[in-house]
Amino acid sequence: MRLEIDATVRRGTFTLQVQTTIDTPACGVFGPSGAGKSTLLALVAGLVRPQAGRVVLDGVVFDDVASAIHVPPHRRRLGVVFQHGHLLPHLSVESNLRYGERLVPDAGRRVSFDEVVRLIEIGDLLTRVPRTLSGGQRQRVALGRALLCSPRLLLMDEPLAALDRGLKRQILPYLRRVRDTFAMPILHVSHDLPELLHVCDELLLVADGRSLAQGPLGRIAGDPGLLPLLHDAGMVNVLRGTVLAHADGMTSIALEGGSTAFGPRREEAAGSRVELLLRPDDVALALRPVDGISLQNQIPGTVLRVTAASDRVLVTVDIGQEVLVEVSGRTVAQLGLQAGREVCILFKAMALSGRA
């Protein structure tokens, strides 16, 4: 995917002015409430028209104000999943799904009905109507309907905002399966940073109608001016690895980069790929391994950068993958933390929470 946006949208007293190019398979758009995230998604979807500029997806011009080009939403071939699903209440689940499928000519279909039903596990819901579904089930059906449009790009506007934490944990694995199974580009809007990190490879930070930063979390976190926004959004590390074994109520995981970590016992079998969440403020730093301590994880690494903003200091450590560690300015001074310094990151096994 290559999405090029250089456009201005005015809605009442609010102005969105964004210039960016997104060429990653899954990009998360985040920022505070009222930042312009949903307006940006509506711009790409064609639901609002820019007053100036252009929107181009993979060489196809959707909007070009100077050339009086505006492709209407139904001709953009984009799939959209909104916060509340917006299913057709008088149709069954199967009919809602078929509605999306009918919008695409046979020659343009990239995914099959049976494949989608199997992937998001809704085979037992097909005869039911929306009012009988739970919130999580409705969102899965809405996702399936969007997929059956065989979209060029899947747009997701706060799709999990109305769900409680338990339902979010149920839905997030399906979003990752969609990305991995169909290789379908995703633009996912949310104010919940951990949610985005479950699905997206890259982030676009929007505030006050402007794009402030773009890239992996580690790169964005290197800007001191953005640390308060990241902290408020729920900044978290994503550690990738492979399950090694289960013993003594814990699971050992071979992390990318060569280290081994221990976390709460998981359901996945040995050899399964996993991704785990670790909060920066759940990690401590030491200059060398520490004996006689209950912390199960002590992993060597090298400091890449130290980013300070008021009372917050974020240390980025390379352990074969980047880990963000939140410490005090006093810790930085006491340990002499600077780029190139060899350290150990330390954290409890229970701090390593699982994700699908």
What does this molecule look like?
The protein is globular and about 65 Å long. By secondary structure, it is α+β, with helices and mostly antiparallel strands. The model has no long low-confidence stretch (mean pLDDT 91). It contains nine helices and 21 strands. It has two domains: 3-215, 3-Layer(aba) Sandwich (Rossmann fold), CATH 3.40.50.300; 237-355, OB fold (Dihydrolipoamide Acetyltransferase, E2P). The chain is 23% helix and 36% strand.
Explain the layout of strands and helices.
Layout: E1 3-11, E2 14-22, E3 26-30, H1 37-45, E4 52-57, E5 60-64, E6 69-70, E7 78-81, H2 93-102, H3 113-119, H4 135-147, E8 153-157, H5 165-182, E9 186-189, H6 193-199, E10 202-207, E11 210-215, H7 217-220, H8 227-233, E12 237-247, E13 250-255, E14 260-264, E15 273-278, E16 284-286, E17 297-309, E18 312-318, E19 322-327, H9 329-335, E20 342-347, E21 353-355
Parallel strand pairs: 3-9, 3-10, 7-8, 8-9
Antiparallel strand pairs: 1-2, 1-4, 4-5, 5-6, 10-11, 12-13, 12-15, 13-14, 15-21, 16-20, 17-18, 17-20, 18-19
Helix pairs in contact: 2-4, 4-5
